[in-house]
Amino acid sequence: MAFADYIPMLLRPSILLFMSIKHFILTMFEIVFQERQPSKLLNLTDLRFRSFARLWAANGEAMSVEMPGPLNSLLSQCSGLVLDIGPGSGEMLSRFNPKRIKAIYGAEPAVDLHPGLVRNATKAGFGGKYHALLCGGEPESLIPALAKSGVLGGNGATGGTADDGIFDEICCVRVLCGVPTPRETVKGLYKLLKPGGRMVVCEHVVNPWRTEGRVLARVVQLVYTLLGWPFFMGGCELQRHTEVFLREAGEWEEFKLAYVDPQHAVPFIVGELKKAGALKVSEGGARSLR
Ligand SMILES: C[S@@+](CC[C@H](N)C(=O)[O-])C[C@H]1O[C@@H](n2cnc3c(N)ncnc32)[C@H](O)[C@@H]1O
What we know:
The chain is an alpha/beta fold.
């Protein structure tokens, strides 16, 4: 790629950064002048979540028209009991095939995005099969919410425990960049996956400058970070080693991830992973662990 084309590409994320700063300021105005509750500004975590939800509600749809790599096809193959981490306002739901899915649980901590999520679940044809949970993907938030919903533990639909693995599929789309403890979160998700279960991944990550990436793009990631990207973008980090966290989470039978746009400031890894340990039925009918 010519250098003259490359520079605008590196600058493109700055538009999103400016938009997030605008929504942060507008959220503060809403709190002070409309709600007249300035003390709410002191809760910085809530303020940042709320302003990101505002940004996403206004732009999430437009930012979801084209998704990287084979994501649409990977999501359309999801089946059985599915866990979707951070579904936002459900912009990805139209990519799933509801006929293949028994039930889908969406772990979304931003309460302001839930009305859109429920609306999009209905629009995509999930009906009563969609369960929106008000929680994050980190185990300390997710496990109690799953238990409360009945899908986990003795009183649930499956009766499994977090350590046995209960989900056939877990989807992480543009979310692991923003979870507060990515390593622990990914480990927790690995446990929740049934042996042989599939994880669909579409995440932006640290630029792979040592291999397929570019040093300049890696430097630009650092600059955006210093300009406040994680602060204004609801905790989203540009420099995450998500592939390493996924690889170290446990034993995988298949680990198929490929970079999309590795030379960009926001390169993605997209693909599917299959958890090891599925029961294999031998010719004689005996079952063994792979
Ligand atoms: C960039 S949006 C992506 C939404 C959706 N996955 C998509 O691709 O259309 C990131 C989402 O992750 C959610 N999120 C933030 N922190 C989270 C956490 N700790 N656990 C789960 N989701 C989280 C945000 O509220 C937001 O809805």
